[in-house]
Protein backbone atom coordinates (compact mmCIF):
# COMPACT_ATOMS: atom_id res chain seq x y z
CA UNK A 1 0.00 0.00 0.00
CA UNK A 2 0.96 3.61 -0.16
CA UNK A 3 1.62 4.32 3.51
CA UNK A 4 5.12 5.43 2.58
CA UNK A 5 3.69 8.41 0.72
CA UNK A 6 3.52 10.40 3.86
CA UNK A 7 6.18 11.28 6.32
CA UNK A 8 5.44 12.79 9.69
CA UNK A 9 8.01 15.45 10.46
CA UNK A 10 8.78 16.20 14.09
CA UNK A 11 11.15 18.89 15.39
CA UNK A 12 12.55 18.69 18.93
CA UNK A 13 13.32 22.09 20.40
CA UNK A 14 14.49 23.47 23.74
CA UNK A 15 17.43 24.92 25.66
CA UNK A 16 20.88 23.35 25.49
CA UNK A 17 21.51 20.36 27.73
CA UNK A 18 17.89 19.51 28.51
CA UNK A 19 18.24 16.09 26.89
CA UNK A 20 16.85 16.59 23.38
CA UNK A 21 19.38 14.26 21.78
CA UNK A 22 19.04 11.73 24.59
CA UNK A 23 15.24 11.67 24.15
CA UNK A 24 15.34 11.30 20.38
CA UNK A 25 17.95 8.54 20.56
CA UNK A 26 16.02 6.83 23.34
CA UNK A 27 12.77 6.91 21.38
CA UNK A 28 14.30 5.66 18.17
CA UNK A 29 16.80 3.10 19.48
CA UNK A 30 15.45 2.27 22.95
CA UNK A 31 18.89 3.02 24.29
CA UNK A 32 20.05 5.76 26.60
CA UNK A 33 23.49 6.88 25.63
CA UNK A 34 24.88 9.09 28.34
CA UNK A 35 28.07 10.03 26.62
CA UNK A 36 28.12 10.39 22.91
CA UNK A 37 29.45 12.74 20.35
CA UNK A 38 27.36 15.88 20.32
CA UNK A 39 25.07 15.32 17.41
CA UNK A 40 22.39 17.98 17.77
CA UNK A 41 21.22 18.79 14.28
CA UNK A 42 20.84 15.19 13.16
CA UNK A 43 17.80 14.21 11.17
CA UNK A 44 16.57 10.70 11.94
CA UNK A 45 14.25 8.70 9.69
CA UNK A 46 12.30 5.68 10.87
CA UNK A 47 9.03 3.87 10.47
CA UNK A 48 6.73 3.51 13.43
CA UNK A 49 3.58 1.50 13.87
CA UNK A 50 0.60 3.62 14.90
CA UNK A 51 -2.77 2.64 16.36
CA UNK A 52 -4.52 0.35 13.94
CA UNK A 53 -1.25 -1.30 12.93
CA UNK A 54 -0.32 0.97 10.07
CA UNK A 55 3.36 1.71 9.50
CA UNK A 56 4.10 5.38 9.00
CA UNK A 57 7.34 7.05 8.10
CA UNK A 58 8.59 9.68 10.51
CA UNK A 59 11.48 12.07 10.52
CA UNK A 60 12.75 13.55 13.74
CA UNK A 61 14.92 16.64 13.66
CA UNK A 62 17.13 17.16 16.68
CA UNK A 63 18.12 20.81 16.98
CA UNK A 64 20.90 22.74 18.70
CA UNK A 65 19.96 24.29 22.03
CA UNK A 66 18.22 27.63 22.01
CA UNK A 67 19.48 29.98 24.68
CA UNK A 68 18.73 33.38 26.09
CA UNK A 69 21.28 36.07 25.39
CA UNK A 70 21.52 39.56 26.87
CA UNK A 71 19.20 40.72 24.07
CA UNK A 72 16.56 38.11 24.62
CA UNK A 73 15.92 34.93 22.77
CA UNK A 74 18.36 34.09 20.02
CA UNK A 75 16.91 31.55 17.67
CA UNK A 76 19.49 30.11 15.28
CA UNK A 77 18.30 30.13 11.64
CA UNK A 78 18.61 26.40 11.66
CA UNK A 79 16.00 26.14 14.41
CA UNK A 80 13.63 28.54 12.65
CA UNK A 81 13.91 26.37 9.55
CA UNK A 82 13.20 23.26 11.59
CA UNK A 83 10.04 24.84 13.01
CA UNK A 84 8.83 25.78 9.55
CA UNK A 85 9.64 22.32 8.24
CA UNK A 86 7.91 20.42 11.03
CA UNK A 87 4.38 18.99 11.12
CA UNK A 88 4.64 18.72 14.90
CA UNK A 89 6.90 20.18 17.55
CA UNK A 90 8.21 18.67 20.77
CA UNK A 91 9.22 21.37 23.25
CA UNK A 92 11.59 20.11 25.93
CA UNK A 93 12.78 21.51 29.23
CA UNK A 94 14.67 19.91 32.07
CA UNK A 95 13.17 19.83 35.56
CA UNK A 96 16.72 20.49 36.80
CA UNK A 97 17.03 23.75 34.87
CA UNK A 98 14.63 26.54 35.72
CA UNK A 99 15.80 28.72 32.83
CA UNK A 100 14.96 25.98 30.32
CA UNK A 101 11.39 26.01 31.70
CA UNK A 102 11.21 29.81 31.55
CA UNK A 103 12.13 29.65 27.87
CA UNK A 104 9.16 27.49 26.88
CA UNK A 105 6.51 30.20 26.54
CA UNK A 106 8.69 32.18 24.20
CA UNK A 107 9.55 29.13 22.16
CA UNK A 108 5.88 28.33 21.90
CA UNK A 109 5.22 31.85 20.61
CA UNK A 110 7.91 31.46 17.99
CA UNK A 111 6.44 28.14 16.91
CA UNK A 112 3.00 29.74 16.64
CA UNK A 113 4.37 32.57 14.60
CA UNK A 114 6.27 30.28 12.26
CA UNK A 115 3.22 28.06 11.87
CA UNK A 116 1.02 30.98 10.81
CA UNK A 117 -2.63 29.99 10.49
CA UNK A 118 -1.89 26.30 10.89
CA UNK A 119 -0.37 25.95 14.31
CA UNK A 120 1.41 22.60 14.33
CA UNK A 121 0.56 20.25 17.19
CA UNK A 122 2.94 20.83 20.07
CA UNK A 123 3.70 18.62 23.05
CA UNK A 124 5.64 19.66 26.12
CA UNK A 125 8.16 17.29 27.68
CA UNK A 126 9.71 17.79 31.11
CA UNK A 127 12.86 15.67 31.08
CA UNK A 128 15.27 14.39 33.76
CA UNK A 129 12.51 13.46 36.18
CA UNK A 130 14.95 10.95 37.70
CA UNK A 131 17.12 13.70 39.18
CA UNK A 132 14.92 14.28 42.23
CA UNK A 133 17.57 16.01 44.30
CA UNK A 134 18.34 18.51 41.54
CA UNK A 135 14.79 19.53 40.74
CA UNK A 136 14.21 23.25 40.08
CA UNK A 137 10.78 23.04 38.47
CA UNK A 138 8.13 21.29 40.47
CA UNK A 139 5.85 18.78 38.95
CA UNK A 140 2.71 20.93 39.09
CA UNK A 141 4.22 23.69 37.00
CA UNK A 142 4.57 21.68 33.80
CA UNK A 143 0.89 20.74 33.48
CA UNK A 144 -0.19 24.31 34.30
CA UNK A 145 2.02 25.72 31.58
CA UNK A 146 0.96 23.04 29.10
CA UNK A 147 -2.71 23.76 29.60
CA UNK A 148 -2.10 27.50 29.23
CA UNK A 149 -0.37 26.74 25.92
CA UNK A 150 -3.00 24.22 24.89
CA UNK A 151 -0.64 21.29 24.50
CA UNK A 152 -0.19 17.85 26.02
CA UNK A 153 2.34 17.35 28.76
CA UNK A 154 4.58 14.45 29.76
CA UNK A 155 7.13 14.29 32.51
CA UNK A 156 9.80 11.80 31.47
CA UNK A 157 13.29 10.58 32.06
CA UNK A 158 15.37 9.72 29.03
CA UNK A 159 17.81 7.87 31.22
CA UNK A 160 15.46 5.89 33.48
CA UNK A 161 12.25 5.20 31.64
CA UNK A 162 11.94 4.11 28.03
CA UNK A 163 8.20 3.54 28.15
CA UNK A 164 7.34 7.12 29.15
CA UNK A 165 9.52 8.53 26.39
CA UNK A 166 8.15 6.09 23.86
CA UNK A 167 4.58 6.80 25.00
CA UNK A 168 4.92 10.54 24.50
CA UNK A 169 6.42 10.34 21.01
CA UNK A 170 4.19 7.47 20.00
CA UNK A 171 0.99 9.28 20.94
CA UNK A 172 2.14 12.26 18.94
CA UNK A 173 2.79 10.01 15.92
CA UNK A 174 -0.68 8.46 16.25
CA UNK A 175 -2.27 11.89 16.45
CA UNK A 176 -0.36 13.07 13.38
CA UNK A 177 -1.21 9.93 11.44
CA UNK A 178 -4.90 10.55 12.11
CA UNK A 179 -4.62 14.18 11.07
CA UNK A 180 -2.87 13.41 7.81
CA UNK A 181 -4.81 10.59 6.26
CA UNK A 182 -2.91 8.83 3.49
P1 LIG B 1 20.57 18.40 24.45
O1 LIG B 1 21.63 19.45 24.44
O2 LIG B 1 19.23 18.96 24.80
O3 LIG B 1 20.51 17.57 23.21
O4 LIG B 1 20.92 17.42 25.68
P2 LIG B 1 21.67 16.00 25.66
O5 LIG B 1 20.78 14.96 25.09
O6 LIG B 1 22.99 16.18 25.01
O7 LIG B 1 21.81 15.72 27.23
C1 LIG B 1 22.56 16.60 28.04
C2 LIG B 1 23.08 15.82 29.22
O8 LIG B 1 22.01 15.41 30.05
C3 LIG B 1 23.84 14.54 28.84
O9 LIG B 1 24.90 14.39 29.72
C4 LIG B 1 22.81 13.46 29.05
O10 LIG B 1 23.41 12.24 29.38
C5 LIG B 1 22.02 14.01 30.23
N1 LIG B 1 20.62 13.54 30.26
C6 LIG B 1 19.72 13.60 29.23
N2 LIG B 1 18.53 13.13 29.63
C7 LIG B 1 18.65 12.77 30.91
C8 LIG B 1 17.74 12.22 31.88
O11 LIG B 1 16.56 11.97 31.66
N3 LIG B 1 18.27 12.00 33.14
C9 LIG B 1 19.56 12.25 33.45
N4 LIG B 1 19.96 11.98 34.69
N5 LIG B 1 20.43 12.78 32.56
C10 LIG B 1 19.98 13.03 31.31
Description:
There is one protein chain. The chain has 182 residues and is of the alpha/beta class. A hairpin with a 5-residue loop joins strand 2 and strand 3 (55-62). Helices cover 35% and strands 25% of the residues. It has helices spanning 20-29, 77-85, 98-102, 104-115, 141-149, 162-179; strands at 7-14, 43-49, 55-62, 67-69, 72-74, 88-94, 122-127, 152-155. Helix 1 crosses helix 6 (162-179). A six-stranded mixed sheet has the order 2-3-1-6-7-8, with helices on both faces. A two-stranded antiparallel sheet has the order 4-5. The structure holds guanosine-5'-diphosphate (GDP). Guanosine-5'-diphosphate binds next to helix 1.
Structural class: alpha/beta
SSE series? EHEEEEHEHHEHEH
Silhouette: globular
Mean pLDDT: 89
Strand order of the largest sheet: 2-3-1-6-7-8
The count of DSSP E runs of length 2 or more, i.e. the number of strands, is 8
Strand content: 25-35%
For the CA atoms, what is the radius of gyration? 15 Å
pLDDT below 50 for ≥5 consecutive residues: which ranges? Answer: none
Helix fraction by DSSP (H/I, runs of at least 4): 25-40%
Distinct helical segment count: 6
Distance between the termini: 10 Å
User: Which small molecules are bound?
Assistant: guanosine-5'-diphosphate
Report the biggest beta sheet as strand number plus sense, adding barrel if it closes. Answer: 6 strands, mixed
